[in-house]
Specification:
The complex is a heterodimer of chains A (338) and B (106). Chain A is of the alpha/beta class. Chain A is built from seven helices and 24 strands. The chains are: A alpha/beta (338), B alpha+beta (106).
């Protein structure tokens, strides 16, 4: 059980700066994120795109912003739990007990949801039958590639994941690569490699095809694909892999009894607490009259939510308002040497 | 100003006058059309504003940039007439445009 003051869900810019604000007022926090790195949308969707509306920073990329925020919270030694999604939440007297997808457990005084537009999840096949094979013979990511040895694999997608796995698995498996168009979004060198392998008969490439149906009893035995012009093919296959990038979904947050309105969580604007005591929401995921989905709004919301957590984490103390320029306590927490 | 019709998967049609300069995605979001989430806010980074454009409109729309086609690879059930509605800028020429929102997206 990890015992700390506050658990922040989401390591995007809002969550990171909120960790700073908690640190300044002397509260400890840990951060959970479903992605494999900090930065949220800034890193996942637009690491190279410039942002022009961070106060006092005329221009920076999503990656630079993330790195600067990580630098800023360094003094507080915040513990990150990446590749984890918060699944369960239970009230235990005055504390919250939280469990993640990786079975990490937390005992905390308050929770701050800084989840953006939700957690990033793999985008799935629209074909209904796929569900029943998911996790057994149909996958959206690969954990153990040895299960594919000497089997037939049908890979769908045209990005780097699809191309890289098609190339890699073609060494030990029979691979079909199916993509909806002739063009690919993956690296040009990988596209060339795939075409070479196709010419050499080491891989079968089907372009302008999409999945129409998967069939099989307990495991997939065949997949039907349909050409743009309407012609269908049935391929014998042992496994199906789909690589269509990530989509953002609210996930288990929906079941926590919060007031949810159009994929956002309603909060008050005094301290960004939700309708449930001790659960706060900040950044893109929160809504209130006048809400702007800007990073700078997230920073403001985080500063207030951090202070809102204080009464839960230190019920017997009173929070003093102080500036970092003059506060000894804040400077000590920041590790400032005089 | 252009009249844009959005067909949703419940077989309803929602028609609105959309101001020139807005995108077809913004027109949908401002009018609460279900199924167009536009999670990334129009940055061509998420494919949650994917629509099917009525066939006879296809040639009249500006052509796709590279990034749009790459992003459509990630959309649910992309077809020949798929577009990202965040890339369709409303003008008088688009008056009467009809788009359908993919069922899986709603």
């Amino acid at each position: 059980m990890n015992k700390t003051d506050v658990l922040i869900i989401g390591a995007g810019p809002t969550g990171l700066f909120c960790a700073h604000q908690l640190g300044i007022i002397g509260l400890q926090c840990e951060i959970v994120d479903n992605l494999d790195k900090a930065g949220g949308q800034c890193i996942e969707l637009y690491p190279d795109k410039p942002i022009y509306d961070i106060p006092a920073v005329p221009e920076c990329t999503g990656e630079e912003l993330t790195n600067n925020l990580l630098q800023q919270i360094k003094p507080f030694n915040v513990k990150f739990h990446l590749n984890e999604r918060v699944e369960e939440l239970k009230k235990n007297e005055n504390r919250w007990h939280v469990k993640t997808s990786g079975n990490q457990k937390f005992d905390i005084a308050a929770i701050i949801i800084a989840g953006g537009v939700g957690s990033f999840e793999p985008r799935k096949f629209p074909v209904k039958e796929c569900e029943k094979f998911e996790g057994s013979s149909l996958f959206y990511s690969i954990k153990d590639k040895t299960i594919f040895k000497d089997k037939t694999i049908s890979i769908f997608g045209g990005g780097d994941s699809a191309l890289d796995w098609a190339i890699e698995l073609s060494n030990t498996s029979k691979v079909n690569l199916i993509h909806r168009r002739d063009g690919f979004s993956g690296a040009e060198s990988s596209v060339q490699k795939v075409k070479e392998l196709n010419d050499q008969g080491k891989l079968n490439l089907y372009t302008k095809y999409q999945m129409d149906f998967v069939g099989g009893e307990n495991n997939i035995s065949s997949v039907k694909i349909k050409h743009d012009e309407g012609e269908s093919k049935e391929l014998q296959t042992d496994y199906v892999l789909g690589f269509f990038g990530l989509i953002m979904q609210l996930g288990p947050i929906l079941n926590w009894g919060l007031n949810i309105n159009k994929k956002t969580v309603e909060v008050n604007t005094e301290n960004f607490e939700t309708n449930v005591d001790g659960i706060f929401a900040i950044g893109d995921i929160c809504s209130y009259p006048g809400k702007l989905k800007l990073i700078l709004s997230g920073f403001h919301e985080g500063a207030l939510a951090a202070r809102g957590c204080f009464k839960y984490a230190r019920p017997d103390e009173k929070l003093r308002f102080e500036f970092t320029t003059t506060s000894k306590a804040a400077q000590e927490r920041l590790g400032v040497k005089k | 100003m252009a009249k844009i019709s959005y067909h949703t998967h419940d077989s309803k049609t929602h028609t609105f006058d959309i101001q020139n300069g807005l995108t077809v995605m913004e027109g949908a979001v401002q009018n609460d059309i279900p199924g167009i989430d536009a999670d990334c806010g129009g940055g061509m980074a998420c494919a949650t504003c994917h629509v099917y454009v009525k066939e006879d409109w296809l040639d009249k729309l500006p052509t796709k940039e590279d990034g749009e086609e790459d992003m459509l690879d990630m959309a649910y059930e992309p077809k020949q007439n798929s577009r990202l509605s965040c890339q369709l800028i409303v003008s008088d020429e688009l008056d009467g445009l009809e788009v359908t929102i993919p069922e899986k997206q709603a």
